[in-house]
Amino acid sequence: MSVNCLIDTGSTLSVIHIRKFLSIPESQRPDKIYEGIQLKLANGEIIKTMGQADFDIKINGKIWKQRFVIAEIDAPAIIGYNFLYSKNCKLDIRHSKLTIEDFEIECQKESQMSSIFKIASEQNVILPPNSETIIMSKVLGDSSHLMDAMIEPVMKQDNEILVARALVDPSSGRIPLRIANLTSFERTLYKSTCLAECHLCDYIFEMENTERTNRKVFKIKESKADEVPEHLVTLFENSISNLTEEQGLQMKGVLKRQADAFANSKNELGSTDLIKHKINTGDATPIKQNPRRLPLAKQEVADREVQRMLDIGVIEPSISPWSSPIVLVPKKNDPTSVRFCIDYRRLNNLTKKDCFPLPRIEDCLDALRGAKFYSTIDLQSGYWQVQMDPADKEKTAFVTKRGLFQFRCMPFGLCNAGACFERLMECVHENGERVVAYYSKSFSKTERQYCVTRRELLAIVASIKHFHHYVYGTSFLVRTDHGALRWLLNFKNPEGQTARWLEFLSSYNFEIQHRAGRQHGNADGLSRRPCTQCTHCTRQETKESNAEEDPSCYLRAVKTAKLDSKIREEIEIESTEQGANWMQSKTTEEILAAQQQDDTIAVILKLKLENQPKTKVGRHFF
């Protein structure tokens, strides 16, 4: 693959653009090497890299090997200082020549080689909220030799200012850009703000056989829809337009399995027996109210709604001593239509209020933070799916010119209906644990030197501080895979930082529960994920797995220390319970032989025997 490279003596490393790397055929693409390198730009900004790869560089027929960092940069590739220094290169800037070893290379000027140009705004522009605007922009540089180019946005999406991709002709130096402001307030784009990049297109292909393709897609949809329940065909066809073939088949399977969860029509209702709505009016005398007169044009609407509710079983004829009038309220979104309501205000005045808390919108928004997928699935007339208590049905009675009727299910307008429905939702979702929020913390340079127990204790302290709003004043459970923390919190004479941490934790009511690392995957999944580029992680994972079944196959370093007698007793009891006395069955010779066979411990033993703790490798262990 031929690539125009930028020679940059100010770049410590050689870098290739991620898009150029991915454009290499997979069979010829070099393997990535993940080493966690970050690039710091001249302006101080730090960008993440996608790994490294070793390439063969061919210049004027001669080949060199060079490692490139893979990242999003402004050029297709950068030849950095590491290559120039290792190959003893000489750069003649005036004559645009690069000397590598014993031959010269003619370099192109930037205007000749560049296939990427910056696009900036021509003037200050005010973007209205929640709207899209087309503005004129200018190409920074000489783009007269370009014919077709693709606009690629460079602004981060978290700014909520989006630039649309488009195929353009930048030869004139001016390009129209479509920019969307997704915020709820005005945003200003100042003159010369870099908005996008203009990338040269090597090839442009026309679409062929579009009619045949469309006909094929239609047949696929039709064949899939044949197997979907009839009342879900429209839903299915509207949903698969942006799905792949495999995703469409998966969705079809879900709809077939859960077909009974979807209403056939607006008149089909479900019903729950988890809760029944009660109206507690004490010893109050029944209230009787006369029907209100309705305009002649509205009487037919009221009769039609009463008949519909009778047909679907929501109401039934009544002989109740209670009665409330009906009210037809115009809908806000459609003033020509009305909503059938019942005036239960006098009944609500006599009802003892249910104080079950309703969720606050602020708390609901906390739970949505970081979510990527949102569902608009709703219950079909959710209140009508809650049954009325038989003793209180008569209190829901309403009067029309057709007679007296009462509700068999919970109607709208009752003062305790919202609390009752929220209690039902809590009852449905109360089983099982659910994630409220995630939290992580990177250790500082000093904290990384802590012992394992101290780091685990710091993790508990930091997490409880972060979730103070949720856990303070309540009893909660802390699960950890470090068993020593169970007795550490009962330490009698703590000192220094440990004492301060334990004092902080004493203001919370919680219990520490030990959970084995194998069962701790929900918290340690990312940190325990093995990499595929080396064999150490796989070997280590195998040893840890075997150690839980047979501890003798994996030995750890042993360090002796004097312990308080009470702590010693607790440790011995705990060790006995967990079967940790397995070392007593091993002789000194067997332990020494196992250590010499271990790749990691063997290195430490060798350094110890050679008295080399001050070497670079030795300092890592000592």
Automatic annotation (TrEMBL):
The EC number on file is 2.7.7.49
Q: Which residues form a coiled coil?
A: none
* SUPFAM superfamilies named in the record: Acid proteases, DNA/RNA polymerases
Q: Which residues form the Reverse transcriptase RNase H-like domain?
A: 428-508
CDD domains according to UniProt: retropepsin_like, RNase_HI_RT_Ty3, RT_LTR
Q: Does the keyword Nucleotidyltransferase apply?
A: yes
Offer one Pfam family short name for this entry. Answer: RT_RNaseH
Keyword annotations for this protein, in alphabetical order, are:
Endonuclease, Hydrolase, Nuclease, Nucleotidyltransferase, Protease, RNA-directed DNA polymerase, Transferase
Query: A Gene Ontology molecular-function term?
Result: aspartic-type endopeptidase activity
Q: Does the keyword Nuclease apply?
A: yes
The family database entries (InterPro entries) matched by this protein are listed as: Aspartic_peptidase_AS, DNA/RNA_pol_sf, Peptidase_aspartic_dom_sf, Retrovirus_Pol_polyprotein, Rev_trsase/Diguanyl_cyclase, RT_RNaseH
The protein depicted here goes by the name: RNA-directed DNA polymerase
